[in-house]
Specification:
CATH class of the largest domain: Alpha Beta
Function: Involved in the biosynthesis of the chorismate, which leads to the biosynthesis of aromatic amino acids. Catalyzes the reversible NADPH linked reduction of 3-dehydroshikimate (DHSA) to yield shikimate (SA).
Shape: globular
Pfam family, one: Shikimate_dh_N
Pathway: Metabolic intermediate biosynthesis; chorismate biosynthesis; chorismate from D-erythrose 4-phosphate and phosphoenolpyruvate: step 4/7; Aromatic compound metabolism; 3,4-dihydroxybenzoate biosynthesis; 3-dehydroquinate from D-quinate (NAD(+) route)
EC number: 1.1.1.25
GO biological process, one term: amino acid biosynthetic process
Length: about 280
Amino acid sequence: MHPNSSFLVGLIGSGIAASRTPPMHEAAADAAGIRYLYKKIDLTELKLGVEALPELLTAAKRMGFDGLNVTHPCKQAILPLLDALSSDAEALGAVNTVVIRNGRTKGHNTDWFGFAENFRRNMQGAPLGRAVQFGAGGAGAAVAFALMKLGVQELTIIDVDSAKAESVADSLSSRFEKGRLKVGQDVAAAVAAADGIVNATPIGMDKYPGTPLPTALLRADLWVAEIVYFPLETALLRAARALGCRTVDGSGMAIFQGTEAFRLFTGISPDPDVFFATFASQGG
C-alpha cells in the first residue's frame, strides 16, 4: 500500500468538462476508505494549448499531486517531458497516466489494459484467429496492442488514412511475431475471413453518426467490440445484436483504464463495480 492515505490527482486535456473520470475515481476512493481529490485541468477553459504542458507538469509536482491522467490532445506531447516511461507507454508512444513520486514522473498507458480487461470479462472463449480493427487514430494503437496481448493470431487494421494504419502496424510489429499484424484495404474480404471486428474509430458517437463498415457485411458468427461509449449502443452494436452477434460496448474500456490508473496512483485495486455504478449514474 502507498504510504499516503490521501491523494491529489488531476486530469489534463481539452474539453473535459463533462468527463466521467473524476467522479468514478472519487467514489472508488470513498469505497476504499481513502481521501482522494480529483481535479480537472481543462485546457479549453484555461485557454491553453499543449505548449503549456511543461508548466502544468511543474506546477503539479510543486503542489504535491500524486498523479495525472492525460487525455486528448496531450497523450503524445507529454512523452518527452517525463522522467521515465513504462514499457507499455513506450511501445504505444502515448501516455494517459502519469505517476508522480518524490518529484519524479513516470508515464504509463492503461488504455490498452482497459480494452483487454473489458474483452476478457465479456468475451470468454471468443475465437481469436483473425480480427479486423477499424481505426488507427488515437485509440488505435492501444486497441491493436490489446488485441495482440489477448492472443489474436492475425490482426488486420483498416483506416481511411492507410498511412495511419501502416504507422500503427509498423510501430507494434517489432514487439509481436512476424505476420500477425497487417494493413487491409478490402473491407469485405477482411470481414469475410474474420472471427471478430473492433471499432476503434469515433464513428458511432453522437457527433459522428454511422457505422465504420457497411452493416450488410456483419454475420451472426462474428463478435463485435466497440470503444465508443457515448452512446452506449452505437448503430454498429445495434445491427450486430439484431443478428445475434456476441458484442461488447465501450464502457468497460473507459472503466478499466480508470481502475488501473487508480491502482497505479494509490497502490490499491479499486472495486470495478463502484466505477460501473458511478459511470452509469453520470447519464447520457
